[in-house]
Amino acid sequence: MARYPSRYSALSLLRKGATRSNWPRAWRHHELKSSYDVVIIGGGLHGLATAYYLARNHGITNVAVLEKAYIGGGGSGRNTAIVRSNYLTPEGSAFYDRSVQLYEGLTEDLNFNIMFEQRGHMTLAHNDASLRTMRWRAEVNKLGGIDSKVISPAEVKELAPAIDISDRPRYPIHGALWHPPGGIVRHDAVVWGYARGADARGAHIHQGTEVTGIDVAGDRVIGVQTSHGPVATPIVINCTAGWSTLIADMAGVQLPITTRPLQAAVTEPVQPFLDPVIVSGTLHVYVSQTARGELVFGASVDPYSSYSSRGSLGFTEGLAGHVLELMPGISKMRLLRQWAGLCDMTPDFGPIIGPTPVDGFYVDVGWGTYGFKAGPVAGEQVAAMVATGAIPELIASFGLERFEEGALTAEKGAAAVGH
Amino acid sequence: MLVIVCPHCGPRNSNEFSFLGERSSRPAVATTTPDEWRRYLYTKDNAAGSQLERWFHVSGCRRFLDVERDTVTNEIRSVRDVAEDAR
Ligand SMILES: Cc1cc2nc3c(=O)[nH]c(=O)nc-3n(C[C@H](O)[C@H](O)[C@H](O)COP(=O)(O)OP(=O)(O)OC[C@H]3O[C@@H](n4cnc5c(N)ncnc54)[C@H](O)[C@@H]3O)c2cc1C
Ligand SMILES: [Zn+2]
């Protein structure tokens, strides 16, 4: 049998171009079976990457990814695609560093161009206190072998000439944390690449399939109810980010998560002038320029919890004011659109990955505003956890039980606006 | 932007208020267990639909308010002063 789908290569591009034949669909449609070895709820990056690594690393292929709408329609298709590993805690930075490594090899691994551009990630300091935290972060990062250092305003100007380092702004720039391996990726490509890879290895991706209930017998999961009928399974993995408490409720598991909208906006495209990703915690704003030339802006989460992904004028006003403090030169640029996605916020800005009090029901949630960069490593580690039944070292500090034990993570300083 | 009709100040933009989260009842400090206390601190209902929540009118009357809001549509159903509510 021919391999599905055929490999993408220069040769296949040439052949398709010459013969003008259609490309096969990147992933297939299957009928929903009445049972699977593993059911993954949520067809975002986390669900799809988990399906991919279950097959690729552990040979577990009787797997369904159930997505109520379309894949990548949640946070995975709405994020601003910042990838970096300069977190504050040793556990956090080791975890995200593994993800950066996976991203570096992902285009080749998935045979899908994910357009990972490591143009550097710069977090500006507008006061002494943030400069001190950055020195601390840089030292933690260096110990973990992560390229990260504090730089001066002059160096900021050299790397990003558009930034105003004068005394004019209300909060002048005192320095920055500079992280060369950070950058941006093409988020849709990552989602589609994992979907294609998981499908090619045997996983079933079911779009338009909503989970409406979880069947628990005693304290064990035995199946799920869906909009297309029941599915029996001994293992359910909750990868539904902003909706994760609704899914956990179905299994009778309570999570310390609240759902908050996060907004972003994009300008018309212009010629390339901004190389690194720029973040300002003080001004609650970050900006990068995509390969297409648009400026992508983001900020902190909306000030109240909600499941509504409507944008607000208040956001755009605040954003524009703050961005112009950083880069007064772009005042004539026009915004093209703005949007919002739902974020699953935890009290300590750390994810929740691991088993729950219900046997066979796992969570990979709490990704807040920073979970896109974690997709590859979370998928890899969750797959290993499910396949071996043991919790890998890299995710050991992210379990749900930490809220009972009081062993919270402390990533707020490095995760809040930087994403 | 949400508009919250404050019982004291009238309709105001929500950025005049600070959102304090869904309402929960604090266990009696003297008799609570660590388990119950942690549940109070961290576990949320995070309802998709009607939610009873607390806001503080920080740039207005500086009163605490109980607001009933639909978290899917953001429609606000009622706003009451906490103190009057307790009466
Ligand atoms: C504006 C914005 C900017 C961001 N910027 C960054 C960034 O720069 N860097 C970064 O690392 N992170 C960023 N994030 C966070 C990141 O997008 C998320 O953490 C990440 O995409 C979560 O992926 P996921 O696969 O867990 O969830 P999602 O992609 O949200 O997927 C969850 C899926 O579950 C489905 N679902 C829900 N309920 C059901 C049900 N009952 N049955 C079946 N399916 C269901 C949904 O339809 C959805 O497709 C940003 C987020 C937003 C909103
Ligand atoms: Zn008032």
Q: Please, could you describe this protein's structure?
A:
The complex is a heterodimer of chains A (419) and B (87). In chain A, helix 2 links the parallel strand 1 and strand 2. In chain A, helix 2 packs parallel to helix 6 and helix 2 crosses helix 9. The radius of gyration of chain A is 22 Å and the shape is globular. In chain A, the strands form four sheets. Chain A has an eight-stranded mixed sheet. Chain A has a six-stranded mixed sheet with strand order 8-2-1-12-19-18, sandwiched between helices. Chain A has 419 residues and is an alpha/beta fold. Chain B is of the alpha+beta class. Chain B has a single domain, classed as 2-Layer Sandwich (Folate-binding fold). Chain B contains two helices and six strands, in the order βββαβββα. In chain B, the strands form two sheets. Chain B has a four-stranded antiparallel sheet. In chain B, strands 1-2 form a two-stranded antiparallel sheet. The longest helix of chain B is centred in the middle third of the chain and has 9 residues. The termini of chain B are far apart. The interface between A and B is medium-sized, with 23 and 25 residues. The site of flavin-adenine dinucleotide has 41 residues of chain A, from helix 2, strand 13 and strand 17.
